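Can't paste images in this forum, so I'm doing it all in text. The chain is below; anyone willing to post the predicted C-alpha cells underneath?
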Amino acid sequence: MTIRHRITLLVVLMFVALSAIGGYAVYQTRGSAAEVRKVTEGVVPSALASADLVSQVKDVQLATMTLVYAPDANMIAQAQDELKKKKATLQQALALQGKEAASHAQQGLVTQATESLANYFSAIDDTAKMKADGKNELAQAYLFANVAQYRDELEGIVETLRVEKNREKDDAITTLNATLATTTTAIAVVTGIAIILLTSIGSLLYRQITRPLSRMQGMMSEIASSQDFTRRVPVGRLDEIGHSIVAFNGMIEKIQESSAQLKQKTADIQAMLQNMQQGILTVVDGAVIHSEYSAYLKDIFETKDIAGRALMDLVFGDTDLGADALSQIEAATHACLGEDGINFVFNQHLLVGEISRRMPDGRAKILDLTWSAITDENDVIVRLMLCVRDVTELRKLAAEASEQRRRLDMIGEILAVSEEKFHHFIESSAGFVSENERIIRKHSEADHAAIAELFRNMHTIKGNARTYNLQHLTNVVHETERSYHELRQPDADRSWDQEHLMQELTRVREAIESYARINEQSLGRKGKNQSDDAGNAGRYVMIGKDDLQQTLSLLDKTNADELHDLQSMRDSLRRKLRALGSESVRDALSGVLDSLPSLASELGKPAPDVRIDDNGYRLRGQASGTLSNVFVHLLRNSIDHGIESADARSAQGKSAAGTIDIEVGVDSGALQITLSDDGRGLALERIRGIAMERGWIGADDTLGDEAIADFIFRPGFSTAETVTEVSGRGVGMDAVRDFLRRENGSIELRFTDDRKGASFRQFQTIVSLPDSFAVDTLGADARDEAGDLKLDAMAG
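Text version of the structure:
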C-alpha cells in the first residue's frame, strides 16, 4: 500500500469518526440552546414582568391619592388622565401574563387579577365623582374604605402571581444547568476522543512521511551548502518519497553538468574580457563599478583603479560636460538601478552617448558610450552595462574626411565661377570686411548708423556669395549677419561687444581667405595682383583674334584718298580701342542672372525672363563690381516683391513666369541703367502703413506717391511679411543707394502709370553712374538708326 493510499484511508476513517462525534455534539448543543432560549426569552422576562406589576399597582395608588387631595380642577383632570394611562398599562401587562401562563394556577391568578383590577378602578371612578361633586371628605373616606379594600385584594393577587412566576423561573434555571452540564461532559468526551484519534493519525503520518522527508531534506541541504554535486541521496523505498529522491538525484546530476558548462563559459567570458579591444563595465547599486570588467578599460582610462569606483568619477571626471548634464546622468543612473525596466527607457536619453575626456597629460580622448540595462526575472534593473570605445582617431579621420569633402565642394563652387569674377568677388568681399573692421574699432558703443552699415556690408557679401553659390561662405556670413540683425532690434538683449564682433568678423575673413587660398594653391588661379607679372598689372589688355582681324580688315578696306572714309575708319577704330578691357552688361551681371532660377525656386515661382537692351554700350572694368553689388539686391527684390506667384499671374491673364527688362543708356552725362518688371508694382499703401507704424509720418499727413516711395531707401525698411533667406531683414535699397553714392552715382524710382493714390503702381528703377563707366560701341548715328528700327518694329 502506497503512502497515498494510507493517507487516504486514514483521512476517511478520521472523517467518519469525527462526523459521528460531531453529530452527537451538535445534537447535545442544540438541546442546550433550546433550553437557554426558553429561560432567557420566556421564563425570566415573564418573571420580571410579574414583579413589575406590583410596582404599577403602587403607582395607581399614588395617582388615586393625588386625585383625592387635588386642590383644583386642573390637578384633578391631570390625575384622571394619569389613572387612565396606568389602567391601560396594567391591562396590557395582565394580558401578556395571561399569554405566557405556564400552568392553570397562573392562568387563574391572571383572571382574578383582571376582575380585581376592574373593581379597583370602578371604586376609583366613584371616588373621582365624589371629588368632582365637592364631597371631599366623603371621597377621602371612600378612598380609605372601599378603594383600599380593592387595592389590597389586587396587590395580594399580583404578589401571588409574582411568587408563582419566580418559582417557575427557579425550576427552569435548575433544569438548564443540568442540561448544560450534560452537554459540557459530552463535548469534553468527544474532544478527547478526537484528540486521541488525531494524535494517532499524526504519529502514523510522522513515521510514514515526515521522518523520511526530514532525512531527505537534511541530506539535500548538505549537498546544497557544500556545493558537492557528486553526492547522491540514498533511496530506501520506491514510494512517492523514493521517486522524489530519484528525481532529486537526477536534478543534481543535471546541475553538475550545468555547473561544468557554466565554469567553462565563465572562463571563456573572462578570456574575452581580458583580450577584447573594447571597454565593458557594469554599474551596480550605489552607482559604483562592479569588480568584473574588461581589461581594455585600463588602457582607455589609463588607470588600474577601476573596481569599486564611482561611475561619475571614473567615466565623467574631467570631461567637457556641464554641471547640469552631469547631474542629469547621476540622477538617471540612480533612477534606473533597482527599479522597473521601463525606467531605463524613460531615462536613457539623459545618458550621454559621447564625451571628451581629458587625460592627466593634457590629451583629450573622445569616448563613445553605449548603455544597456540588465534585469532579473521580475524585470527589475539590477545593473547597467556600459560599453566604452575610444573613437578619438576615428573622429579625427572623420573630421579630416569631412574637411576634404568640404574642400572639394568649395573647389567645385569656385570652378563654377569665372576666374575674373571670382577674383573680383574676393576683392570686394575683403573690402567689405575691412570696412566693417574699421567701423567696429571706431565705435566703442552701439550706434544705429554704424550697425546699419555693418549689416548692409555683410548682407551684400552674403548676397554675392549666394549669387555665385559659395555655400560654405554663405553659411558663415549668414550667422554674422544674424548677429548684426539682433543688434538692430529695439529691445535687443545683446550689447555692443567689440571683442565678440571682431571674432565674428574674423570667421568671415578666414572663410573668404580659405576660398582665395584654394583658388590659388589648389587651382593655380592667381589674382591679378598676385601673378608673376604683378609689376605689369594694368599695363596690358587682352584682345581676341577675331576683334584684331576685324580691325585689320577695316584698315585694309579704307580708301586713304577719301576723307570721309578716313574719318569713319578713325571713329570705328576709336570705338574698338575704347571697348578693349570692357564687358557687356549681361556679362557683368552674369553671376546674379545665373542665380535667379535658384532664387525663384526658393520662393516657389518660375524663373523670370530677363531681357537686356544695352543699346551698344559696354561697361568698363570698375563698373562691374558696383553693378553686381547693386543688382544683386534689385533683382532679388523684383522677384520677391514685384513679380507675383504663378497662380496669381495666371488669374490676371499674365504668363506664369514674370519678365524683367534692363535697358542701358547715357543721358545728361551719366550712364543710366533702367530696371522694370511686369509684376504688380510698388506697394504704396503698405509702405505708407509701415511709415505710420514707425512714426515717420502722421495719420493725417498728406504725401505724394513719390515721397511715400522714397521711404524704401531708409535703413531697416522692408515690406516682407516674414524674414526669409531672400529678404525681410530690412536691408536692400539703402545698401544700393550707399553703393552708388560711393561711386558718385544715384538711384531713383519713376512711376510709369497715371494711377496716383493707388495701392500698387507700376514703376522703373533708374540707376545712374558717371558716363566714364560706359563705352559706346555703336556711335550716335548707328544708335539712332537702331532706335528707328526698334520703333518701327514696335509700331508694326
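Confidence is low (pLDDT under 50) at residues 529-540. The domain at 3-217 is CATH 1.20.120.1730 (Four Helix Bundle (Hemerythrin (Met), subunit A)).
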